[in-house]
User: Fold these one by one.
Assistant:
Number 1:
Amino acid sequence: MPTITDRLQQVRAEIHRAEQAAQRSPGSVRLLAVSKTHGIADIQEALAAGQTAFGESYLQEALPKITALAGTGIEWHFIGPIQSNKTAQIAAHFDWVHSVDRLKIAQRLNEQRGARAPLNVCIQVNTSGESSKSGISAHELPALARAITLLPHLTLRGLMTIPAPEPDPQQQRRPFHQLKLYLDQLNQTGMTLDTLSMGMSDDLGAAIAEGATIVRVGTAIFGPRAGKDKH
């Protein structure tokens, strides 16, 4: 049975191969280990293997982990849907938020971040057009991006998407290509966004081919957890 350390090495090797295939610089893609539904011991094993960025989707599950692992140098990323009553805790305890999809949430995060270093945020875009998927629509994106850039306690870093599952690698690339186009269009208006958070365990190669700078991988590192969604 492979260990978490073994699986991390395999995922890093897969990322490196995808970087080479896309003629991208080694190390241009960051690995975000999605530790939601997995315990502190699993995170500690990944940390010992050199992984420092971890993603969580459920605030009440994440907070005890953040407290227990304080002082270890972990960079915590919130990647799940955000409820208004959770923004204060998210603003206080996370370094990144990938799932901002409306101005009200951005404004609350900004107000509640306070004197801490600015919170890195990505706007989640619905590239699949599915009503069940979170994320802002493409036509609403420019206005939200402009509004977030005016919030002093947030730093807009880029865009995130969770497309519909697709087994065909060529079809996988379509929503990632769209997200890259949206980022380029925003930068053509004078923004300096540098982050595309896209690609998970089953489609990270396609995401890297289309310009991903952060891939969010959980299952391929920690293994599946029954009854939970997977990254």
Number 2:
Amino acid sequence: MAAEIIYLIGFMGSGKSTAGRELAAALGCPFTDLDKKIEAYAGKSIAEIFTQDGEDVFRKTESDVLKSLRIKGPAVVSTGGGTPCHGDNMEFMSATGLTIYLKMTARQLAARLVNSKNTRPLIKDVSDSDLTGFIRKKLAGREKWYKRADIIVDGKDLNICHLRTLIEIRSEKK
């Protein structure tokens, strides 16, 4: 594996944190959850930042923390669902590592997210019946960033061994 940072991107609920831990273990490198770093930096949960300070403050903090990680690689970083879509975060991640989009449909994401809405600020007030439509609309607006990823994989039945192979093939071509 090349000595680079692997950034996992995708919509909330796509499995970035779970896949990130598994991929880091498979590659024998450290794992960083950007949301956990943001919470440590801010001294409060993501939900509290959204509620108390607003999304603009959260996005600024997210960008600042992302750019201050100082990871030398190799490493795996799971990002927040909106991380690549704000400021120059996608450009930063592309310049400093490999980006992988865990792609899922709105219906698949809604099925995963319906029982965790209270911990997800963007969907906490969305009714269960409106959740798929809300996600579909939000996903449509984010896809232009997500599709800029170096590698795009199906997040539904993600196979970490297959993903590792894709990373190794890409690294050999560099």
